[in-house]
Amino acid sequence: MCETRSKNLPPWEALVMVAHYLDPQTLALASCVSKSWCQAMSLDVVWQPLCSSSFPSLSNLKISYPSVPYHRLYATGLAAFKRRHKPPSKPRLSIDNIVFTIQLSTKGVPIFTIAEAASNMNNNQVFKFDVDVKHGSFKGIKGLEEMKVTWNVVLKGWEAIFTMMDWQGKLSCRPVEGWFSEELPCAGCCSSEVGSGIVADLKVDMEVEKVSVGILRVVDWRYVSIEDGLRYLQHFLLPCQCDGM
């Protein structure tokens, strides 16, 4: 029976010819058939064009490291691609579970204090929220006045709190609009020395008596999505799950 089965197997040259027409996934499956198939499906002549077309930078490493087979370089490139393009998980934190507290004061005297559920504030599908301020709150504010701005995000029930901004300085000579920003710490464990690449953004429009808060990306100065903002905040407001990842 063994002799009959060996006669039915395609010759080595035929395997290599067929391998040139197979995609990487099929090649990987075919290499599990037998030892001879594995050798045929793993040849550099088969994997070199696949690696060069998909991961040219890795393919060029063959010049410096000739002992590394092309199928290994392709597998390494594919694993790195999947890690880089892995879709983020849904945030565990909900917009319904956070409250924004915002205070603007001058000379130690509060100009206004806001405590508003994020879900009740106006937004446009990005992490930027607008809230109206009580009429007359900005009356009497002058240019070059010392101001203090504090923005906290509070988990409902006061179970946790994260300070987004605690800024102190002077307004411009024309205090029509105040724009404040502070870089946020990097989210996650053991990353305090690495910049986050995002900033807390707070604008005060004294003409229409409105306050806007949000999270901006430094790279393009655009507001992050609501889900990205929630993923960031959950690192500071919810128990860390890094050990389980």
From TrEMBL:
Q: Which Gene3D superfamilies match?
A: 1.20.1280.50
Residues in the signal sequence:
none
Pathway given in the UniProt record? Protein modification; protein ubiquitination
Where is this chain primarily localised? nucleus
Listed A to Z, the keywords are: Nucleus, Ubl conjugation pathway
Top-level taxon: Eukaryota
InterPro entries to which the protein is assigned, alphabetical: F-box-like_dom_sf (IPR036047), F-box_dom (IPR001810)
What positions does the domain F-box occupy? 11-51
Location in the cell reads: Nucleus
Q: Does the keyword ATP-binding apply?
A: no
Gene Ontology annotations of biological process type: gibberellic acid mediated signaling pathway; protein ubiquitination; SCF-dependent proteasomal ubiquitin-dependent protein catabolic process
> Which GO cellular component does the record give, naming just one?
nucleus
What this chain does, per the entry, is described as: Acts as a component of a SCF E3 ubiquitin ligase complexes.
Q: How does it assemble?
A: Component of the SCF-type E3 ligase complex.
Report what the protein is called: F-box protein
Q: Which organism is it from?
A: Gossypium raimondii
